[in-house]
Amino acid sequence: MKSAYGLKIPEADPELTRIGPGTPCGELMRRYWQPVCLSADLKDLPKPIRILGEDLIAFRDGQGRAGLLFFRCSHRGASLEYGRVEERGLRCCYHGWLYDVQGNVLEMPLEAPDSPFLKQIQHPCYPVREFGGLVFAYMGPLDKIAAFSVYDVWRSEGGILKARMGPRVGGPVNCNWLQAEENLMDALHTFWLHTLHSGPQFPSPAYGLNPDELKYEETDMGMRFVLTRKLPSGKWWELIWEMIMPLNIHLVYTEEAKTERVRAVSYCVPVDDTHQLGASIRWMPENGGPDQLTGREKLAPASRGDTSYEYTQRHPDDKEAVEGQGVIAVHGLEHLVTSDKGVIMFRRILRQAIQAIHEGRDPKGILRQHEKAAFVQTSAGSVIRD
């Protein structure tokens, strides 16, 4: 028996878990376009945003342009969430300063018309881009701005794109982004947690079959796993999940065992070090055919009739598993083993990307075709073969 007396709890890994301004992983996150809100959220009122530990204000001016500004007015620090959306920009409620989507001060109503301050003051803001119903922001250095990635699944024929942003499947996940995302590269937890322990939490009973082979592979854009099972029919089922840099982007398949590509690109959006949101752009058949992800959403704890603490103790899901590691998981308490190859690779790729930035190089997954959106091929999905 080993007593817990005197157990010392190490510090959490700051290099990978902290995402605020000036932190190593925060700097990495800021080199890629991140979703901040739905396009539909920007109506006639400004929208407060918190992302990567920063408080911002999103709005759409009367000309239809989206903007993302630092939330405090440059004059006296009043919150721009109480500002008024106008034709040319957002006007502060306190003294009427008017800002356009690029942070230019257009008007200072209580100053003389020829006030020199009008041209001297530039309000902090971030570049934004809208795609597929989401508003994306680039929060890194402007001289390092990356091309916006367009994924092949969004360009499939005969469909429409549907955006979502809000709590992740299963309800709000109140913990560090890293433990929630590296969970997706812990392939074998799907066999134990989602089947043997909690009962079937995916639509197909094939997820409960013992895996025959599991490979983790590094890719040009991130990493993936290929998990192979032999079905009762004698055919082989390959399940492929993929992570895209900076590894808060994922393509996962949780539906029936059949040959089909993943249709959604999903994001874990770090709000701060201990909170996160989910976002996705999903391709859906235009003719109203079957959608993906509906089965998983119906089985997630937040969609079940019984959401009591006792029920989640008996039937935990990803939310309970990752939150149960603490608001920020302490890696120094872990004992990683051979089945943790995916988690080890996940963290190694992140550390290498952080090191690349430190050395002045582009990290993995940064594309530079500025003249047009960069097209990205993906491989995630489900394959049935003989």
Quaternary structure of the protein: single chain
The low-confidence runs, each spanning 5 or more residues with pLDDT under 50, are none
Query: For the report, how would you describe the main beta sheet?
Result: 9 strands, antiparallel
Q: Report the β-strand fraction as a percent range.
A: 25-35%
Question: Structural class, from helix and strand content?
Answer: alpha+beta
Helix content range:
10-25%
Number of strands: 22
Rg from Cα: 23 Å
How many H/I helices?
9
Task: Explain what the structure shows.
The model has no long low-confidence stretch (mean pLDDT 93). The chain is 17% helix and 28% strand. Strand 19 and strand 20 form a beta hairpin. The radius of gyration is 23 Å and the shape is globular. With 386 residues, it is an alpha+beta fold. Strands 13, 14, 15, 16, 17, 18, 19, 20 and 22 form a nine-stranded antiparallel beta sheet that branches.
